[in-house]
Specification:
Length: about 220
């Protein structure tokens, strides 16, 4: 799986090679399946995706699995969601999340929960993170939590801080670890060079598995 980004939106695509004359683009399970001849240049496929990006993105968005308003996914588990009006707070009881919020938009209510969950999880893993990055002379940096549409995190060199996507609280916690180490690696090597990936591998062996997985997951 690979991704193509345009105007803050991402299309995930998979290229399959077969001995055929034409190239076929099919929307399947939230990604674009491209079937083409082995000699077809990748640049031609990218050009097609770019030229028809809006049309393809709309079709892909329709095929994404829709989460019901009375459901919320936290740390890779889907729970029942109950919302009441009031100052923001929430409780998790077994498989039910009860939320009080002044927001009337369910999506925004869920994002409030995502942000708080991410904040709490960061506190749980902070000691392990700190011990690992200290080996390279790094200290814990300030974190900003935001809901981002096109990326899971970023390192801001000017402010020397890390931004994390609250969407991560929907996934298995291992992906939060990966994104955090990814951004700390950027504090030393700003680009995605061989040195960067070697450093990231020291922080988190087998990081490539999680990197590949995230490319397949659409942020909703």
């Amino acid at each position: 799986m690979e991704t193509y980004e345009k105007d803050g939106r991402i299309i995930t695509y998979l290229i399959t090679h077969k001995r055929i004359k034409n190239t076929y683009f099919r929307v399947k399970d939230g990604y674009l399946k491209v079937t083409t001849h082995p000699l077809t240049k990748k640049s031609l496929i990218i050009a097609y995706i770019d030229a028809r990006f809006d049309q393809l993105y709309k079709k892909l968005d329709v095929t994404k699995p829709k989460e019901l308003d009375n459901q919320i996914t936290l740390w890779d588990h889907t729970l029942e969601l109950m919302i009441s009006y009031g100052l923001f707070r929430y409780r998790v009881h077994s498989d039910i999340v009860v939320v009080w919020s002044l927001e009337t938009d369910v999506a925004k209510v869920k994002r409030q929960v995502y942000a708080k969950e991410l904040e709490q999880q960061i506190k749980k893993i902070s000691k392990d993170i700190e011990a690992t990055i200290a080996q390279k002379g790094l200290n814990i940096l300030p974190y900003k939590i935001k809901y981002l549409k096109s990326k899971y995190g970023s390192y801001h060199r000017k402010n020397n801080e890390i931004t994390l996507n609250s969407f991560l609280s929907r996934l298995d916690p291992i992906y939060l670890n990966y994104v955090i180490y990814h951004e700390y690696a950027h504090a030393i090597v700003f680009n995605h060079s061989k040195d960067f990936y070697n450093l990231l591998n020291e922080f988190m062996p087998n990081h490539r598995v999680y990197q590949k997985d995230l490319k397949k997951i659409a942020i909703i």
